[in-house]
Amino acid sequence: MVGEGRFLVFELIILLLNFAWADDGLISPSQLQMFVDELPNIPRINGFHLRNGVPHPGRLRIGMFPKKWKFHRDLPPTPVFAYGTSQKAATVPGPTIEALHGISTDINWENYLPSKHILPWDPTIPTAIPHKKKGIPTVVHLHGGIDEPQSDGHATAWFTSHFRETGPSWTKKTYHYHNLQHPGTLWYHDHAMGLTRVNLLAGLVGAYIIRQPEIERPLQLPELDLPLVVFDRSFNRDGLIYMNTTGNNPSIHPQWQPEYFGDIIIVNGKAWPYMIVQRRRYRFKIINASNARFFNFRFENGLEFIVVGSDSSYNDKPVWVKELLLATSEIVDVVVDFSKARSDSVVLLNDAPYPYPTGDPVNGANGKVMKFIIKKDGVLDKSKIPTRLIKYTPPNLSSASTTRYISLYEYTSDTDGPVHLYINGLPYEAPTTETPKVGSTEIWYVINLTKDNHPLHVHLGLFVALEQTELVDLEKFKECMLKVNDAIKCGVGKYARGKKIEVVAHEKGWKNVYKMMPGYVTKIVVKFSYIHSNESYPFDATAEPGYVYHCHILDHEDNAMMRPLKFTH
């Protein structure tokens, strides 16, 4: 009777949820059957061209187009914004750009979007708004790229359709990507001020891979190499992407909410897809392109991930893990050996609470990601898992020229709802306070005074996370920081003496995003030069408009957890 009673309660909950979705015009995830759409092959385009077998610098034209996209067999076509070489060829995610180390790529990013957005947005947060109130501002950031400021996709370097209007720091139509950095996985996405969350939600994301065959080929990793771009969405019954139209503090911000979560998990443009695989090793470059959702990936049958890279760089050796926590914008490069599976299929699961780490537990919809159907017969697999990968020089703390304290704040209204989030208690437009020297190494202590885990992303620089230390008597320290806004004057040292969290083995290498735990101080060493050669940049990093660093929860970044980063010689 107890089991039957629990079953009836569960059925009642599902029924009530379905009524709630129906009342909102939302389609219930339970109405969409999982694992009915095959994982699409996202098109790949080369960022170089061959002349007599020799690679030369390439030039691409990639547009942003309105189109309709089928996210699921039983869902009506969805209006989206998509990257592609034409409207017909445009995809969600956009084409994977394959670049070669040492061979530059020039890209004309072209805006063909309509005059009005397909999603609601909020003009009361710092936002790119054209003077004529027409056109959708966009600008493309190559996440993880080490390139000149004019090609970094600065939030104020936006432009509307056909460049009819441009932002205050816009300078050029053609972006130049040097591709001189170490090999690895990057991704490109929109970065327009105050519109990043809605432009990515509409579909403006894609993968970018820098390859260096002479040092990667000897590793003998699997050639079956596939980006998996993962994000969450909710949909109306008519197929439209659902986004709230009312903010959590509508008298202050009519539309903005602190996080967007959808119950339908999308991989490479399909909801809960399946992929047919052989009993051999595959390599997956997993990119979390969600607005706010963290994923804690694991296989239902205990199959392992072999981690070979984190964000844009290789690890020095492979690490075997059963689960992978991936924050928004983080990338993990893994090998999965399906010959180890004892079954003919396996589901990739997620069990990360949302918001992370203290939010709601996953449900039957957002707790599943995709399914792998494994062929019965084994195949010859010549790939290997080497004992060593690519070792880069570790950070030298004694060479650090500056120590900085970076504090993360959330501000609430009288009803305790979030109003905005700041870094170092400053809005984005406040004078620049972080001015590193080109080629320098710095130590940053990132102090998270909020209840959320914030994935901090630093443009241009790479860093190594060293340790995370709990803040004791947090409320007392926070009270001082809200008044004084100075970690030294508030005596951060006497509070940062709680338990220490060691960096997990597969994240000890060079990264461009790291998860800043709530109530902790995270110590990172940031390097503003190449990690593979220790050389400085071949471009002027001190030029305008400079760079930025920010929280990569997009709803936080837009309001206004982002600060300028200006370099000096």
Task: Describe the protein.
With 569 residues, the protein is mostly beta strands. 9% of the residues lie in helices and 37% in strands. It is built from six helices and 32 strands. It has helices at 2-24, 196-201, 213-216, 474-484, 492-495, 554-557; strands spanning 44-46, 48-51, 54-69, 78-84, 94-100, 105-111, 140-143, 174-177, 184-190, 205-211, 225-233, 264-267, 270-271, 274-279, 281-288, 295-299, 305-310, 313-321, 323-326, 331-337, 345-350, 368-378, 402-412, 418-423, 441-448, 454-458, 462-471, 496-502, 513-516, 520-527, 547-551, 562-565. A seven-stranded mixed beta sheet has the order 13-12-11-15-20-17-18, with no helix packed on it. A six-stranded mixed beta sheet has the order 24-23-25-30-27-28. Strands 1-5-10-9-7 form a five-stranded mixed beta sheet. The relative contact order is 0.13. The model is unreliable at 1-23 (pLDDT under 50).
Mean pLDDT rating: 95
List the strand order in the largest sheet.
13-12-11-15-20-17-18
Total count of strands: 32
Instruction: Tell me the structural class.
Output: mainly beta
Report the radius of gyration as a whole number of Å: 23 Å
Q: How many angstroms separate the termini?
A: 75 Å
The fraction of residues in strands falls at 35-45%
* Anisotropy-based shape: globular
Q: Can you summarize the main beta sheet?
A: 7 strands, mixed
Helix content: under 10%
List low-confidence stretches: 1-23
Q: Please tally the helical runs, counting DSSP H or I stretches of 4 or more residues.
A: 6
